[in-house]
Amino acid sequence: MERNIPLQDISKGKIFEKYEAKFKAIADQKRLQIMNIFTEKGEMCVCDLAPLMDMSQSKLSYHLKILLDANIITKRTEGTWSYYNLNQAEINHLLSEELCCLFRPTSC
Amino acid sequence: MERNIPLQDISKGKIFEKYEAKFKAIADQKRLQIMNIFTEKGEMCVCDLAPLMDMSQSKLSYHLKILLDANIITKRTEGTWSYYNLNQAEINHLLSEELCCLFRPTSC
DNA sequence: GGAAATAATCAATTTTATTTGATTTAAAAA
DNA sequence: TTTTTAAATCAAATAAAATTGATTATTTCC
């Protein structure tokens, strides 16, 4: 099974691979909550986010890395602090207008 | 850790739970490919989809169930056959206009 | 009725993702 | 310079998801 690669895959395989990674990153309650917090409160360091998420530091770091690797959030380091925020352009590219309430700061 | 539930979660927890399930369903290359086939070819029985996906029957059945449970696709049974198709309304609710090329039949 | 075809389900295994607690690195403050 | 704080990383344990092959249920066709 799965020996032959249909012609279709050669061109679209990369695209599906890319979206698999992005959707996987946002397919988690905790990570959606993190994204929602950035939407509402804007850029924030890990130390301020941790108490809001009620999560251990290493666990939070793990989830932030997954979102960062998928380009869903951005990171800016200043001294000892790491400031994270939503990558709004990426969110807009990915999600519908109807999901605006959760992940777009302007409307709703 | 994780003892106290922030106030926010009480109202939004259900929403995040719902989207976790939906994004999890589409966070897979194979399932994205299935969705894309429905987009391009419309309603189809499992027996016609299997060779296009080059996948064993039980494996395909497993992936179709995941998409169906998340309401991403629809199912219609006729005799021995099961016909599946995209749930376009759900796709539109979930994904951006820019993902139209992959999962909306009209444009592109 | 009996054989063949369609598709769902099951149990066992394998693979992948998440959690935990400890350690490490680096910067800031005393 | 030592201590403290912030955050990333690591290895081990646990949990969840995917794969496999076999079995089952149902329907169609002879």
Give an account of the 3D structure.
Chain A has a 3-stranded antiparallel sheet with strand order 1-3-2. Chain A has 108 residues and is of the alpha+beta class. The model of chain A has no long low-confidence stretch (mean pLDDT 90). Chain A has one domain: Winged helix-like DNA-binding domain superfamily/Winged helix DNA-binding domain (Arc Repressor Mutant, subunit A, Orthogonal Bundle), CATH 1.10.10. Chain A has helices at residues 7-26, 29-41, 46-53, 57-69, 88-94, 100-103; strands at residues 44-45, 73-78, 81-86. In chain A, 60% of the residues lie in helices and 13% in strands. In chain A, 24% of the residues are buried. In chain A, a hairpin with a 2-residue loop joins strand 2 and strand 3 (81-86). The interface between A and B is large, with 38 and 38 residues. The structure holds a DNA duplex (30 and 30 nucleotides).
Would you kindly provide a brief summary of this structure?
Two copies of one chain form a homodimer. By secondary structure, the first copy, chain A, is an alpha+beta fold.
Topology, element by element:
2 copies of one chain form a homodimer.
Chain A: H1 7-26, H2 29-41, E1 44-45, H3 46-53, H4 57-69, E2 73-78, E3 81-86, H5 88-94, H6 100-103
Antiparallel strand pairs in A: 1-3, 2-3
Chain A binds a DNA duplex (30 and 30 nucleotides) through residues 1, 24, 28, 45-47, 56-66, 77, 79-82.
Number of strands of chain A: 3
Multimeric status of the protein: homodimer
Q: Give the chain pair forming the largest contact, with residue counts.
A: A-B, 38 and 38 residues
CATH domain class of chain A: Mainly Alpha
Number of domains of chain A: 1
How would you state the average pLDDT of chain A, rounded? 90
**What's the order of the H and E elements of chain A?**
HHEHHEEHH
CATH fourth-tier homologous superfamily of chain A:
Winged helix-like DNA-binding domain superfamily/Winged helix DNA-binding domain
Helix content range of chain A: 55-70%
Based on the coordinates given, report the CATH architecture of chain A. Orthogonal Bundle
What ranges of chain A have pLDDT less than 50 throughout 5 or more consecutive residues? Answer: none
Structural class of chain A: alpha+beta
Count of individual helical segments of chain A: 6
| Bulk shape of chain A | globular
Termini separation of chain A comes to: 49 Å
Radius of gyration of chain A: 16 Å
**Biggest sheet features of chain A:** 3 strands, antiparallel
Percent strand of chain A equals 5-15%
